[in-house]
Specification:
The structure holds two protein chains of two kinds. Chain A is mainly β. Helices cover about 10% and strands about 35% of the residues of chain A. In chain A, a hairpin with a 7-residue loop joins strand 15 and strand 16. Chain A is globular, with a radius of gyration of 22 Å. In chain B, helix 1 crosses helix 4 and helix 7 packs across helix 8. The chains are: A mainly beta, B mainly alpha.
């Protein structure tokens, strides 16, 4: 039957494709097209244009026509005193071109999709398996078959994921402390693996161990570290139309879907608190973004602007930072005309950001960089593998 | 690389674009293939044109990378499937949140065509985006599991399980029709 169906599929798909009347290719644009879904606010667009112009000037002036990435930091003409940014080894885990470093040591394997919480890391291997670890400890693999991306609490204390190895979705988690234990299974019956073709995800776990599950319809909060661990709140009832996107040190990032499904690139999300009963209260509005990270003290956020890192784009030349409570924006530029690898940026403390910078025009290689938000500058760091 | 080399498409060469001649030529040659893939993914001409055009726009933005790739076609395929999967979700949700009833197959809402007489195609159109992408890449593009995993940025195990679920759904869907004497 399998062969029969596969033969039918091959035949029918080729028949359908062969019968398709291909229209003439439309004329292509003369300038950068506007993304279909996202909309740039004019100030952001203006900032992007300014950043682009300044970046180009900086790149030309600073490189002197040499496109090769330099191994060591070089003075940038756009900042006041680049030597003020520390070039010491990062104190948080980071990934450069698939190499994961933790506690100054390279962790064997090829890694991507890094999340950090303090010195704890959570990342995927190239075979799709997920692991967490901390300096001096053996990496631990998340048990079962992990569906979608798991979540790490902002302080790195807890990790939570959905295990679909049994054919059913089972929500679970673990305490990452050396003597920590697993959460066991959440007391949720008949949790589907997907809804309308969209796999259920764990977008967030808080420092208190509250785990959020989001699907097409599902909006749950499992209080995995509260009393008997059997408290599950249906956020669809307690906070209708609100979708939790991630947990940060400054609170939950939530988007309001009361007017229909949306995302953080289309609708400005907000920072919020959640009560044990599932009431979500807005703290402050956030700008739209493709991805966002909040500093360890909750003071700053850094984001890739909406529409800049979607699709097949592997990085962005600039990041926008601003106080979480609102205020002037600081534009961080990747050194030497390079690009920050998508979602590679993680806060080291309340002032410094560690990121992977890809050389100009490439999406591999490169080095780690440190950006100091107060100085508004980024410098490349020595590559430990070369040392 | 085996690009379709049909009649040159109408395309202005006066526009300024990065590496314009190479991009123009490549885009024109890739367009028929790209459009057909987009049609198989989206199931209708409007979305297919939109999807194919957006893929070319994305390639245009990243042309320095695409043109240097060993297989630009693989690069485009990856862009296409990622765009399809990422865009399908909010669009589908907007449509389907209007009712609690199960969604109708999208093909049922299209203009009737030769494909409507096919047995599996209408059900392919009802598959979730990721499953549908795997099916198109496997049985139209004839890609290996490794190549599909690269295109979808996932593991081969994930491709296997997704394909398994898709085939299972298709078997379940055509089972009754087959018993009713449909040509299988």
């Amino acid at each position: 039957m399998t062969t029969q169906i596969e033969d039918m599929l091959t035949r029918e798909l080729h028949d359908v494709a062969g019968a398709v009347q291909v229209p003439p290719m439309p004329a292509l644009p003369t300038e950068e097209p506007t993304p279909r879904v996202t909309r740039y606010a004019k100030p952001l667009l203006a900032a992007a244009v300014v950043a682009l112009v300044v970046g180009l000037v900086a790149a030309v002036a600073g490189r002197g026509g040499d496109d090769k990435p330099q191994p060591a930091p070089s003075p940038s003409p756009t900042v006041t005193d680049p030597t003020s940014v520390s070039t010491a080894a990062p104190t948080v885990p980071y990934v450069v071109d698939g190499r994961l470093y933790s506690g100054g040591e390279q962790v064997p394997g090829e890694w991507w999709a890094l999340q950090t919480g303090g010195e704890v890391w959570l990342a995927a291997q190239s075979d799709g398996s997920w692991w967490w670890g901390r300096p001096g400890g053996e990496p631990r693999r998340l048990e079962g078959e992990v569906q979608q991306s798991p979540a790490l609490s902002p302080d790195g204390r807890y990790v939570a994921w959905i295990d679909v190895s049994s054919g059913q979705a089972v929500l679970t988690g673990a305490d990452t402390q050396p003597a920590g234990e697993g959460f066991g299974d959440a007391p949720i019956e008949d949790l589907p693996t997907s809804e309308e073709g969209v796999g259920l995800t764990v977008p967030a776990v808080t420092n208190e161990g509250d785990v959020f599950v989001t699907g097409w319809r599902t909006r749950l909060m499992w209080r995995a570290q509260f009393e008997d661990q059997r408290s599950v709140v249906d956020l669809a009832d307690t906070a209708p139309g609100q979708r939790v996107l991630q947990a940060t040190t400054a609170g939950l990032v939530v988007v309001d879907e009361s007017d229909g499904p949306t995302d953080s690139a289309t609708t400005a999300p907000y920072l919020a608190t959640v009560s044990g009963e599932g009431r979500i209260d807005e703290v402050t509005q956030l700008p739209t973004f493709d991805s966002v990270e909040v500093s360890t003290g909750g003071t700053w956020l850094v984001r890739s602007a909406a529409g800049t890192t979607v699709g097949d784009v592997t990085g962005t030349g600039t990041l926008q930072a601003q106080p979480t409570e609102g205020g002037d924006e600081v534009v961080l530029r990747a050194p030497q005309g390079g690009a920050f690898g998508n979602s590679s940026w993680h806060w080291e403390d309340d002032d410094n950001l560690i990121a992977w910078v890809m050389p100009a025009g490439r999406d591999d290689g490169g080095q780690a960089a440190r950006c100091n938000i107060r100085i508004g500058d980024c410098v490349l760091l020595d590559d430990p593998s070369q040392g | 690389m085996e690009y379709e080399r049909g009649a040159p498409m109408a395309f202005s060469t006066t526009k300024q674009a990065p590496a314009a001649p190479a991009y123009d030529e490549y885009a024109a040659s890739a367009w028929p293939w790209l459009y057909r893939c987009a049609y198989l993914l989206s199931g209708n001409h409007a979305d297919a044109e939109d999807l194919a055009q957006q893929t070319l726009l994305q390639a245009y933005r990243s042309w320095s990378k695409v043109s240097r790739a060993d297989e630009p076609r693989a690069y485009l395929r990856r862009m296409l499937t990622n765009l399809y999967i990422s865009q399908r979700r909010p669009q589908g949700r907007r449509l389907e949140l209007l009712t609690d009833a199960p969604p109708e197959p999208r093909a049922a809402m299209q203009q009737p065509g030769p494909e409507d007489r096919m047995v599996l195609w209408p059900h392919v159109a009802s598959l979730p985006p990721r499953q549908r992408a795997v099916i198109v890449l496997r049985y139209y593009e004839q890609l290996s599991e490794r190549e599909i995993a690269d295109a979808l940025d996932c593991s081969t195990g994930n491709v296997k399980s997704t394909a398994h679920r898709a085939l299972q759904a298709l078997r379940a869907a055509v089972g009754p029709e087959a018993h009713e004497g449909e040509e299988v």
